[in-house]
Amino acid sequence: MARSTATDPPADLLGPVQGEVSWFCCGTAWGPCSSTGKGACGTCNSGNLQHAWPNTSDACWAITRPDSCGVGLSRRTCGFRHRITALCSGSSVVTAIADCGPQTDLFCGERSCCGATCASNRLIDLTPAAYSQIASLSSGLRPAEISTA
Question: 1: burial class by Cβ within 10 Å (0-12, 13-18, 19+)?
C-alpha cells in the first residue's frame, strides 16, 4: 500500500515482522517491578500478558518512529492481540496492547542474538509476565517474530 508521505503511519501489517523484544514494568508490583503507571491504555499491569506497541495512535507514532529504522508497523489500538515468538526457543505468547512503546527510533540498528539467530530494532515491549513465557527476564532482549494472534 502506497503512503502519501514518508511520515504517514502504515495502514496494514502485511505479515509477520522480526525484531527485538524487551520487557518493561507497569501497573501494580509484580516480580522485579515496583508499582508504576497503568500505561497509555490505562490497563497495563506487569503480571498480565500484555505489551507496548509503537503505533497505537498518532501521538504514540510521533514519539516511537519505527519508520526511522526502516520498519513499517501497522496501527493497532488498545486490546489488539499479537503473537510473539522467540526465535531462540520457538516459545510463543499471545499478548494484548496496553501501552505505547518502545521508543524504537532510539534503538535503530540495535541487534540481539542467540547463536547465529539475530534480529534488529526494538519493536515490542512485553510485561514481565509475558516476557517470562518466552525467555528469562535476565536476558533483557531477544530476537522475536511478531504476528497477529
Answer: exposed
